[in-house]
Amino acid sequence: MYAQFFGNYLLSRGVITEEQLLSAIQKKSAGHMKLGTLAMYAGYMTANEVDQIVIMQTHQDARFGELAIKEGYLTETQVTDLLKSQTPDFLQLGQTLVDEKIIDNQQLQSLIIDYQSENEIYEEDYSNETRENINHLVENFFVIAERSLSSFEVSFIRLLFTNLVRFIGDDFTPVSPYCCREYPTNYCISQRINGHFSVRTYIDMPETACIEFASRYVNEDFTAFDEYVQSSLEDFLNLHNGLFNVNISNDYSIELALEPPQTETDELLTFQAETFLLPIVYPFGTIHFIFEIFKSE
Amino acid sequence: MILDDAKILIGDDSILARKQIKDMISEFGSPVFLEASNGQDCIDIYKKERPTLVFLDIVMPIKDGNAAIREIIEFDKNASIIIVSSVGTQSQLRSAIEAGAKDFIQKPLKSADIQHIITSRFERS
User: Fold this and answer.
1) Which of B15, B20, B86 sits opposite A242 (nearest CB)?
2) Would B115 be classed as within a structural domain?
3) Stretch(es) of chain A classified as CATH 3.40.1550.10
4) Is A125 on the interface with B (CB under 8 A)?
5) pTM for the model
6) pLDDT for residue A9
7) Class for the domain spanning A131-295
8) Ordered mean pLDDT values, 10 residues apiece, chain A (297 residues)
9) Quick one: how far is CA A35 from the chain centroid?
10) Which of A35, A112, A148, B121 is deepest in the core (most CB within 10 A)?
11) CB A286 within 8 A of CB A280
12) B108 lies in a domain?
């Protein structure tokens, strides 16, 4: 699930633009993982060595693996292991960016090293996605946004990522959140949470994205923007906020109240309180989550 | 009673949630389904139709689920009401049970939960 954060990491470092990221995410699943990238990721070869083999390949008709073995960079066992290894999602994104010539192997190598050390990702984390890991990534993510969070807000965002992975799919990238005072709506649902943590939550996306969102959420193939599709956005928001209330009740013994979700009919929303917009990019379109925070702790 | 002879009222403001509950129940038989999208409609339909079983959400417009349980139980103290809600906090659970609900299912809805409710209450048709 770390690809979403890698995408955001690249954006925040100015390595790529939002358009380049969106296009790379859409192409990602079609992309073919290269042995050189895997060898670089495993630490068997440097970017220079990979480039050298790629250049050699332009002169002779041989596979990357064969040449790397011949040049003494890899052993046969290493090649077999690499070909069998599971590719982390974020590396696929990196590969696509290299294929699209947005970054080169040298840049990819240093980005992988920096990203891994900043996020302390180790091999075992891929099979064991703990709550702490998500929590850590969330906090890191908001450092990028230059905004410190209350513990309620951290719980809320952490749960949101967890629920997106659980109910919609892990192929998303959160773009850095930003403050906003106004928002032009597409199809927009809101729900208010009241109490110690008082916030109006919004989910908004274009109608075409709603259809795919609903299909994933309900696990059925929807083809039209009908009442079930519309209802699935309400259902997701209500489920997320309900589970959040359960967590807050369990962790802090605080009961929050939930109002029924409602459809926003205004074309332009204007916000009274401090409001953050969090765009989540999926291959089917961008979901905007908006949090109008009346009371954060 | 066999399921096919039952009348089941589903009170939830989400048309999707109502459909999902109906689909899951329909795996076991074909009862008559009644639907309400808010607490008040739920009370009104209950009084008119006297359903065998009620599935009820808590967070609903006009009147919430807890208010609906109280009014339904006041009308019929033997009403079988099952809460299906995303807000399964201890205090919500307690107030629903105190008001007279028989069971509480935490969303996301799993067919095993519905299966348990249906098979424990109805004979196979």
Assistant:
1) B86
2) no
3) 131-295
4) no
5) 0.73
6) 75
7) alpha beta
8) 65 79 74 86 88 89 91 90 78 87 88 71 42 60 64 84 86 80 96 94 96 95 95 96 88 88 94 89 93 83
9) 25
10) A112
11) yes
12) no
Cβ separation B86–A243 shorter than 8 A: yes
CB contact under 8 A, A246 and B16: no
Range of the domain at B87: 3-102
For residues B58 and A119, the model is more confident at: B58
Q: What is the mean pLDDT of residues B11-27?
A: 95
Question: What is the tally of structural domains in chain B?
Answer: 1
- DSSP, collapsed to helix, strand or coil, labels residue B122 as coil
Identify whether B125 is part of a domain.
Answer: no
Residue whose structure tokens are 């939002």: A18
Torsion, Cα of B45, B46, B52, B53 (10° steps): 90
| 8 Å CB contact between B58 and B95 | no
What pLDDT, on a 0 to 100 scale, did the predictor assign at position A72?
92
pLDDT of residue A93: 84
Nearest Cα residue in chain A from B90: A249
Closest CA to A189 of A264, A259, A292, A260: A264
CATH number of the domain where residue B35 is located? 3.40.50.2300
Across residues B41-45, what is the average pLDDT? Answer: 97
Does B98 map to a domain? yes
CB A63 within 8 A of CB A107: no
* ipTM metric: 0.91
| Interchain CB contacts (distance < 8 Å): A and B | 55
Residues 6+ apart with CB under 8 A from A8: A141, A144, A173, A174, A175, A176
